[in-house]
Each structure stands twice: as C-alpha cells, then as structure tokens.
C-alpha cells in the first residue's frame, strides 16, 4: 500500500509541508509506504479545455512539456492521496488546482464512458492552511474534487484545517496536529480494511 501527499505551497519548509508530514509519519508507523511531492519548483499548466483527453483510450491529458505527467503517474499508482494547500483568497493554490483539474477531468466517473475513473475507490482527502479565514471555501473546493473523482474520504475529529501563517507556526497548532493525525489514522484503517478483505 502506498500513500502520496502533494503540497501546493510555494514556500520552503512551509506550514503546509509540516502538516502533510504529520500525516505521512502516522501512515509510516502503520506500515504504509509514503511519498511527498512538493509543487514549489514544479510547472503545471492549467487545463485548456480542449476535450482531447476524452477522445483518447488512456484518458490522459494531452498537454506536454510541464511536470504534470510525472506526478499524475504517481497519483494513479497510489492507494491513498492527500493534498495540502495554503489558502489564497479563500481558495487552494492555483498550481495545485491546475494539477487536480487536469488529473481528474478526464477520469471523472461518468465521463466520458460512464464508468469508474482511475481514482475510483482510492482513499484520500485535503488539508488546508490559513492564518485566520477562508478555510471553509478552500477546504470545500478540494473536498469536492475528491468526491467527484469517486474517492473514499475519511473524516477526523474536525475539518482538516491548520491555523498558521509564518513559517514554524504549524508546530504550535496542537489542535490542528491532533486533527491531522486522526485523519491519517483513518486513512490507514481504511486502507488496511479494504486491502485485507480484497475489496479495494
């Protein structure tokens, strides 16, 4: 079993990266292989809505020349996907959102072939990070992406939101850390249940 975390922050040693590592540390303790991809130095072009992906057998995005396809392949291989993003104007970071739109649009269950997409019944969910406000909008936007791509989304003891602004603030967010740890524990529980019972 493998869990992939994708961080949308453009900061080095960001608070978003910290929360993602909190989740990954829990998953490692549960015996799950983990990988963290940071989009800080990645180029992800936005979707150009040409619908060519719907005309191909693979369903993959036809745009080439950026870092999308390397990350997309790892998303397809993973059993669980966690995405983390700082909140920018009450929304996820645009680089992360471009990645998710291009990854999900060709494979949404029901389009274009009315069958399960490549993310169907993977486990996952989002984490958002903000100083004060905008969390609900950004978190909901990311959550809707997971939902429409047929993920199994575990809960936690609160929404997966971290309260932090300056680098290092996340380490002081005791409640946020507890929330993310429980979220990761639930991901591990789901993965173990589905794999052990051969229903994944």
What topology emerges from the helices and strands here?
Layout: E1 2-7, H1 15-29, E2 33-38, H2 68-77, E3 80-86, H3 94-104, E4 123-130, H4 135-148, E5 161-163, H5 174-196
Parallel strand pairs: 1-2, 1-3, 3-4, 4-5
Helix pairs in contact: 1-5
Low-confidence stretches: none
CATH class: Alpha Beta
CATH architecture descriptor name: 3-Layer(aba) Sandwich
- At the fold tier of CATH, the topology name is Rossmann fold
Rounded Rg: 16 Å
- Average pLDDT level: 92
Indicate how many domains the architecture comprises.
1
Major β-sheet, in short?
A: 5 strands, parallel
Query: Based on DSSP secondary structure assignment, what is the total number of beta strands?
Result: 5
Corresponding CATH superfamily? Flavodoxin domain
- Describe the global form: globular
In which order are the strands of the major sheet placed? 2-1-3-4-5
Question: Please, could you describe this protein's structure?
Answer:
With 200 residues, the protein is α/β, with parallel strands linked by helices. The protein has one domain: Flavodoxin domain (Rossmann fold), CATH 3.40.50.360. It is built from five helices and five strands. Strands 2-1-3-4-5 form a five-stranded parallel β-sheet, with helices on both faces. β4, α4 and β5 form a beta-alpha-beta unit. The radius of gyration is 16 Å and the shape is globular. The chain starts with a strand and ends with a helix. The mean pLDDT is 92.
């Amino acid at each position: 079993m493998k869990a992939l975390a994708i961080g949308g922050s453009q900061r080095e040693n960001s608070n978003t990266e910290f929360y993602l590592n909190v989740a990954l540390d829990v998953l490692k303790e549960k015996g799950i292989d983990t990988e963290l991809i940071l989009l800080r130095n990645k180029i992800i072009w936005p979707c150009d809505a040409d619908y060519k992906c719907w005309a191909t057998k693979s369903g993959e995005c036809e745009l080439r020349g950026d870092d999308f396809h390397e990350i997309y392949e790892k998303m397809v291989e993973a059993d669980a996907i966690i995405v983390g993003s700082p909140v920018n104007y009450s929304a996820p970071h645009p680089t992360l959102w471009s990645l998710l739109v291009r990854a999900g649009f060709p494979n949404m269950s029901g389009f274009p072939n009315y069958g399960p997409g490549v993310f169907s019944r993977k486990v996952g969910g989002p984490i958002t990070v903000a100083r004060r406000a905008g969390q609900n909008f950004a978190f909901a936007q990311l959550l809707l992406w997971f939902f429409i791509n047929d993920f199994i989304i575990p809960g936690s003891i609160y929404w997966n939101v971290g309260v932090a602004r300056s680098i290092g603030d996340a380490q002081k967010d005791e409640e946020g850390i507890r929330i993310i740890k429980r979220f990761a524990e639930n991901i591990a529980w789901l993965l173990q249940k589905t794999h052990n019972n051969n229903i994944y």
